[in-house]
Amino acid sequence: MKRIIGMGIGVxxxxxxxxxxxxxxxxxxxxxxxxGFWWTVIAVILAIAATGALVGTWIHTQPxxx
Length: 66
Fold this sequence. Notes:
This protein is an all-alpha fold and 66 residues long. Helices cover 85% and strands 0% of the residues. It is elongated and about 55 Å long. It starts with a helix and ends in a 6-residue tail after the last helix.
């Protein structure tokens, strides 16, 4: 159950990161470089958090050997 919840949170964070990148792309496309830059920063932070959630969940839910 812990693995399902942890992986779900990781996928949710990746979804939020994708949404932030979509907003960043809109900012860059309309000429608002500051909006594009900061949404890109937010997307990178969310992607790092998602990766940490997925890898951490995988590592900490492995069965114990012995």
